[in-house]
Amino acid sequence: MLISCKYYTIRNWVIFILFSPLFAFGQYDPLGYPKITNYTKNVYHAAMPNWDITSDAKGNLFIGNDYGLMNFDGHNWNLLLQPDNRTIIRSLKITHGDTLFIGAQGDFGYMLKDQLGRQSFHSLVPLLEKNVNSFGDVWSIFEKDGFVYFQTHAAIYVFKDNKIMAHIPKHEFSYAAKHANKILIMDQGYGLCELEDGEIRLIPNGEKLKHIVLKFILDLKSQGLLLGTMSDGFFLFKDGQLSPWETEVSSYMKTTLSNVCLSLFDGTYVLGTAGKGLIFFDRNGRIIKKIDKRHGLINNTVNHLYEDNNYQLWAALNNGIAHIERSSNFSYIDERSGLIGAAYAFLVHDEKLYIGTSEGLFYSDFSRDTQVLDFKMIAGSSGQIWSLDLLDGMIWVGHHLGAFILDRETLIPINTSEQGAWMFEHPPGRNDLIIQGSYQGIFLLEKVNDTWQTKTKVHGYAQTAREFQFDPDGSLWLTHGYKGIYRMKLSDTYDTIVSQKLYTQKEGLPSDLFNNIFKIDNEIIFGTQQGVYLYDHAQDSMLRNDYYKGTLGTSNLVRRLKNTPDNNLFFISGYDNTDQIGFIHNQFSGKEKKVEVPFQLLRGELIPGFEAIEWVDDQTLLIGTKDGGVLYRKSYSRNYHQPFCTQVSKVYCTNKNDSIIYGANHLAIDTTRRTGHQVLPFEMNALRFTYSATFFERPTYTLFQSKLEGADRDWSQWSQVTSRGYNNLKPGKYTFRVRAKNIYDLTGREAKFTFEVLPPWYASTTMKVLYLGAFLVFISFALWYRNKRIFQSTEAQTQNNHEQLRRQQEAYQKEKLMIENQIFKLKTEKLQSDVNFKSRELASSTMHMVQLNETIIHLQDQIKKISTLARDSVKEHLEKVIHAMSDILHGEQHWESFEMHFNEVHNNFIYRLKEAYPDLSARELRLCAYLRMNLSTKEIAPLMGISLRGIEGLRYRIRKKISVDGNDNLTDFIVKY
Question: What does the angle CA 489 – CA 484 – CA 478 come to, to the nearest 5 degrees?
């Protein structure tokens, strides 16, 4: 879950190979002491003794302690685990496979660490056969060709592929290590041996060493192997010959006990002793430096030494752990060198280094042959020293009590009438005069008969005069801490100020406060809170100096500017704890470059407003700090951009009693095997992340920036805070990201921690299914109930509607009936009218037919009479006429038309009658129709062309067929039918 920085280690070695010629010039400087940070048991919360130190690819330190395995990640100390038998951890080794092997008392094995940060110890002792499983301390662990070696006095155990082979000594294995790809073993009482091809053999003449108590071996290449003993000094072993190494360090070591020795990155060696701290020496055995409790170590017994990925030295002490910053351009001059107080002034003169501090004036020998600075205090100088100036071949001392001249080791008072001398300067062209700035004005000093004395106090100014400079035209520029900047003209005798002007915000300065004055390349410029300003003669005002705009900016306090020996510029800007310190290269070239590395290391250590800067030579710079002085060696080359890692140290669940869910030996839950990341129940949705950076120089200045993807939109502000908490996280997947920026403004490798917050139980998938089921049931019930209500409502509404409809229909029917009655009445009336009309027409037509028939009959009768009188031929024709007229009388053409009109008038009377009485003949139906019209027999006879008697016969047959009683009137029956 955390990103590995393993490839960084490889890149470090590539950088080393490429830049090794540069590092060769950077061997340990004999002057000053490195910065040392001590960690006591009250800090790391374990036992006092520490036995071994190593680090992994990310830079995490691991320390073998009496209480077990400790870890330091740059901010947090943790006691990770103990061997199964709870004993002391003596030795550690991280192999190329990034596995940490552990050697303890009577046990050895390796640390297992899963992706959730859980550590556990896996012992290898169960793999041993019974005859070789008894041993004491494991004193060293090393690796060769994939085999891991564990050295004890009783045996050397070789582990690979889950198998162990044991090598038994002739007497006792007191030492074993890998050198030049060889495994060298000291069998005490037998000699120096080599383990090769699974066998231990004496090296040529190795028996000569059988009585030496060997502590370490160093490979000096052409000189052979350097053997370090416990108390007998050093020996060289070459070509089978053993000889004492007659050097300064060897002689010294005969007076103390040695424990460990380490070859350092820059080619020097450091020896850890039992009781005398650290001894640094070179390849020729010359002692370079001694560091013990007096020089900053918390304890003088060194059990182990380790150089980390950034070439910083770590010492496992008998009482604590020390971090020694050797890989640096800086060494410190402080109480370890006899210097007391904050440094305010430096001066190198006559092979002596003078430093004025808040406690007095100190000096030490300072030449090419000087190996150790040893400061002594000048008698009578006790108190605040403000300045040291070399004028007229003499050292002028600005003291809180006044002006003094240092004559060898004696302070001679020059002007102590008014306390406080700030600085001294010759007026232009007058080496016989000195202008002295004091707490309460300006003094003029003059040289009389080779003796300096106070001539007078300069008239016209009675305020503090801490910083001033003469410009080429002879004007005196003086800065006042909170008023502004004065420009003064002095009289020809320099005893009177003839004119002066105060330049403030009104004259162009960004502020009246914190203005500083510098002379760069014989030009007067001013440092302000908004960059560099200069005086414009034409406008008689202050203007921003654009030359420095690109490098020093326009929104920062410029505190110091000073030319370097190579014509570049050294600057200090910003405020305390945010100091910006460095060089401006190629100034005024148009391609200025500001270089602050490595000076960020001094942030917060300078004295704001009183920074002392002095070039000792073109490669060495002295800088005053709150605790003394710092010696900067420009010639030392170091890669300050070596990468480092940021990492998530622990993750706490704050709403579960701060349960640790990452980075400890136990986890509350673990579902990563299924998901690949930590999965948390909803009740654990409040988390706090702690994080660190494996960069150990000034860790308090390391800044962190974090972001929780899924919750934060942007990265947080850079902060020194090493933890961040989140509450009430919503269900979902998150990735916590964190990165660090060290004191050199280099951003380290980012770390990530991915996790997922599950929905609450009431929002889980199961519950959602139940909710869905319940919802569906509810919806179904609601729909059923709704439908029921709707049905009931509809039913009621329907009934109501039916009732209303019934009422409406009743009303409608009534109205309709009334209308229909009216219509019917109208229709009836119309029909009746039509019937009456048709009846009248029919009656009229019938009567017409009666008349016509009567006429035809009458004509027939006449023709018959005529026929009797006519000849036979005429008679035949007349009979034909009579016969034709008979056809007319009995023809059906008139009847069909009559029947149609009759049925229309009398409601299909003939059809109904015929259907009721199918036996009725056409003549009988015709008679019934005429009866229905109330025609008399006399009227009917002509219509039917028969006699009255024939009509009566038809009437009789009709009665019989329709079953009309003889007493009933046939005509009435027909009319009513």
Answer: 40
